Amino acid sequence: MGKNEEELRQIEIEIIGADLPLKELSKNLVFGKGNPEARIVFVGEAAGRNEDEQGIPFVGAAGKNLDNLLEKVGLSLEDIYVTNILKYRPPENRNPSISEIKIHTPYLLKQISVIKPKVVCSLGNYATKFFLAGGDVDRMKEMPGITSVHGKVKMIEINGMKIKLIPLFHPAAIIYKRSLIDDWEKDMEIVKGELNQKKLL
């Protein structure tokens, strides 16, 4: 087990032992998956029903969309790490509350501090607003939504690290609005371009 993998495991153990909101309402902790040495991290909002059942992020329909879109630009789970803002599923997939985000996101920041990615792809509104706000949850409501910022590369500083942020529509959104596939594919080409430019693959 590598250093990053071991450190991520310690964070996971810490979460398991913590009395986090949503824990009692969920079946499993959904921590993360992928390459712990990845130069690119994808961050979604929270687990859905399938993810909660299996304890793995992005295994349902949204996960299939993500896998397909990654494959189109030559990426796979070996190249990336995937996690969520919330580590437990909100009931009925409701939107997370500010207090829930505040309590869960320190663990996300710990994950990012261990992995040290050069690029973060935020999936959907909540993850995008969190990163645009520099991790300040109270400022999230002031941040623009995903529709106006998707595919736009922005340098951010979070937890003392400078990271390139590339907001993307959440793969689940494609299930309900197929017209977003074109936007996703164009935005993923931007992601691939950034990675190639920095020789991160």
Brief overview:
The protein has helices at 3-17, 49-54, 61-72, 98-115, 125-132, 146-149, 171-176, 180-197, and strands at residues 33-34, 40-44, 80-84, 119-123, 154-158, 161-168. With 201 residues, the protein is an alpha/beta fold.
Please describe the structure with a list of short key phrases separated by commas or semicolons.
six-stranded mixed beta sheet, 8 helices, alpha/beta, 6 strands
Shape: globular
How large, in whole angstroms, is the Cα Rg?
15 Å
Give the assembly state of these chains.
Answer: single chain
Specify the CATH class. Alpha Beta
Give the number of helices: 8
Distance between the termini: 21 Å
Any idea how many domains? 1
Q: Return the CATH topology.
A: Uracil-DNA Glycosylase, subunit E
Task: Report low-confidence residues grouped into runs of 5 or more.
Answer: none
Biggest sheet architecture:
6 strands, mixed
